[in-house]
Design goal:
- It comes from Hufsiella ginkgonis.
- This is M28 family peptidase.
- With 320 residues, the protein is an alpha/beta fold.
- It contains eight helices and eleven strands.
- The strands form two sheets. Strands 1, 2, 3, 4, 7, 8, 9, 10 and 11 form a nine-stranded mixed β-sheet that branches. Strands 5-6 form a two-stranded antiparallel sheet.
- The structure holds zinc ion.
- Zinc ion (ZN) binds next to helix 4.
């Protein structure tokens, strides 16, 4: 009997170990992807530039490798961005006086057993080259983009209940043009989107602090995150950072804002602003590998949790 108990215990331990391995993010792939996407070759990934297009190719290739399904060829959903005035002498309302560039969101999906969908998003664009300096945007937002790839990899091997849409948004730095274009012309019915999980800056925090936005408006989204958070990972979660008019309000600071405006609930994950934010020093060499890895695992576990046990939405008017 004792022996058998031991055998069962051993099997249980192996199962638990296997399960935790199965849920883990591939740290080597995660960091290799981030090192690549935030290298000088991508020239800061500014929309409408060579570096921006290279980032689009990188993401299309990764999506194909992972086996995501396409809504459009090569996962690209083009949209127009009108930028700066190029001829000040003519009346402002004449469109040809403005420089037009194309942005491209890279969108793929894994069909679920349900048609209801969770959109997992991160913007991949950054500031480009300013003066003679390349702004590589490793944390902002190479980190969220490569986290999204890691999550897609997991679900390619573990079919989800909900349809999972992976959205790499372009032109967030130009006032969220990518997510606004996505929601203006969604590739799936908007009513099917039950949640947005948006990541913007996940790669470094001096105090191991990760903000979670959304629960101030959608309190039913807080328990799933708390449930999967393991204090042993050293991450300190902050939940109070999306109340409008508070000094650290994040409601309109990244692409989740476009979902929120369409009354789609969101969870946003991101670190506090740091000294390298929007500086050339936001480089791969300044990413905290352990923090980043744990943060990505936390988001992955959250997606697994809400996919399996989607929280009950209270039948009361949301605070907004
Ligand atoms: Zn950002």
């Amino acid at each position: 009997m004792r022996k058998t108990t031991h055998k069962w215990l051993l099997l249980a331990c192996l199962f638990i170990q296997f399960k935790s391995f199965a849920q883990a993010v591939d740290s080597i792939r995660l960091l290799t992807d981030l090192k690549e996407l935030s290298s000088d070759a991508y020239q800061g990934r500014k929309p409408g530039t060579y570096g921006g297009r290279l980032a689009q190719y990188f993401l299309s290739n990764r999506f194909a490798e992972i086996g995501l399904k396409e809504y459009t060829p090569q996962y690209k959903m083009l949209f127009t961005i009108i930028t700066e005035k190029i001829n000040a002498s003519v009346h402002d309302s004449v469109l040809s006086n403005y420089k037009q560039i194309y942005g491209a969101n890279i969108i793929g999906y894994i069909p679920g057993r349900d048609t209801t969908a969770i959109v997992i998003s991160a913007h991949f664009d950054h500031l480009g080259i300013v003066g003679n300096e390349i702004y590589n945007g490793a944390d902002d937002n190479g980190s969220g983009t490569c986290a999204m790839l890691a999550i897609a990899r997991y679900f390619a091997d573990h079919p989800p209940q909900h349809t999972l849409v992976f959205a790499a948004f372009d032109a967030e730095e130009l006032v969220m043009r990518g997510s606004l274009a996505f929601l203006a012309k969604p590739p799936l019915p908007l009513k099917n989107i039950v949640l947005n999980i948006n990541m913007d800056m996940m790669g470094t925090s001096t105090k191991n602090h990760l903000y979670v936005g959304g629960p101030s408006y959608y309190p039913w989204l807080k328990p799933p995150v708390e449930k999967v958070h393991t204090p042993g990972d050293g991450i300190r979660l902050g939940f109070a950072y999306d109340r409008e008019h508070s000094p650290d309000d994040r409601t309109y600071r990244s692409d989740h804002a476009a979902f929120h405006a369409n009354k789609i609930p969101y969870l946003y994950f991101g670190v506090p602003e740091h000294k390298n934010y929007h500086k050339p020093a936001d480089d791969f060499s300044n990413i905290s590998h352990a923090f980043y890895y744990h943060a990505v695992n936390l988001v992955l576990r959250t997606v697994i949790e809400v996919d399996i046990n989607f929280p009950e939405r209270p039948n009361v008017k949301q605070i907004d």
